[in-house]
Amino acid sequence: MHFLKPLFNLIFPQNCYICKKTLRADETHLCANCLRKLVLNIGPFCPKCSRHVYKEDLICPECNTRKSYLTKTLACFIYTDIFKAILINMKYYNNPFLLKPLLPFIKRFCIEHFSRIDIDIITFVPLHWHKLFFREFDQAFLIAENISKILNIPILPLLFKERSTDSQHLLSKKEREQNLQNTFNIIPGSNIDKKTILLIDDVFTTGNTINECAKILKRKGAKEVYGFTLARGI
Ligand SMILES: [Zn+2]
Ligand SMILES: [Zn+2]
After folding, report:
1. How much is the pTM?
2. Within the chain, which residue ranges are assigned CATH 3.40.50.2020?
3. Which ligand is located closest to the Cα atom of residue 28?
């Protein structure tokens, strides 16, 4: 009933979730002005953390000092104030539909960077069941589900979180890394032997979480693990 939308918007005007401006008939959830403020992550990328570097496949100094279990990790957006506002609205105010206006950008990015890789399975960084219970939806799963449709690759939950790591922000960098160890595990019965996996999360900050999940997948037999996050810090 797409043709009824302009009429519906005329009778019940909708507002942009971020700036609260009244939306035009061709805008959904977010106005064009807010969408224009989003900053796409432009390559060349460090293959381990998706930071912008001056030459393709150059490993940045930070990634040179730590072990990565991912073949390549890429992020579509830069974690700017506008992105943060959208993510907070999506995650903490239970508005999963805010992913929809971002999908054309995600589609273009994923087709450009992942369509030539032979990926067998798409999976995602899991939330602890306790968090899922209160949040009603899992944003990493939601992103993964959409990428599965874009790339036409099956999505499979492969990991679960054994314990909650809520107090992570109170810890030092070293403690944070240690705290994540033994947090995730593979779902019993998952067969990932010699499989190439695309692992999805919402934001890449230190990279510890996605790396820890990739470590488990590699230890359980995965051939290669690629990573995709919606955004990364500057
Ligand atoms: Zn707006
Ligand atoms: Zn890097």
Report:
1. 0.88
2. 42-232
3. 1
Ligand in nearest proximity to the CA of 37: 1
Transcribe 109-155 into DSSP letters: HHHHHHTTS---EEEEPPPPHHHHHHHSS-HHHHHHHHHHHHHT--B
CA atoms within 13 A on the CB side of 77: 25
In this structure, which ligand is nearest to the CA of 22?
1
Which positions of the chain have pLDDT values less than 70?
1-13, 129-136, 164-171, 173-179
Q: Which ligand is nearest to the CA of 18?
A: 1
In the reported structure, the alpha carbon of residue 36 is separated from the centroid of ligand 1 by a whole-number distance in angstroms of: 9
C-beta of residue 227 within 8 angstroms of C-beta of residue 49: no
Instruction: Dump the DSSP string for 182-226.
Output: TTEEEPTT---TT-EEEEEEEEESSSHHHHHHHHHHHHTT-SEEE
Within 13 Å of residue 53, how many CA atoms lie on the same side as its CB?
17
Q: Which residues contact 116 (CB under 8 A, 6 or more apart)?
A: none
Domain 42-232: which CATH number of 3.30.450.20, 3.40.50.2020, 1.10.580.10, 1.20.950.20: 3.40.50.2020
> Helix and strand tally (H, E) in the chain?
9, 6
User: What separation in Å is there between the alpha carbon of 82 and the centre of ligand 1?
Assistant: 9
| Dihedral pair phi/psi, residue 202, rounded to 5° | -80, -50
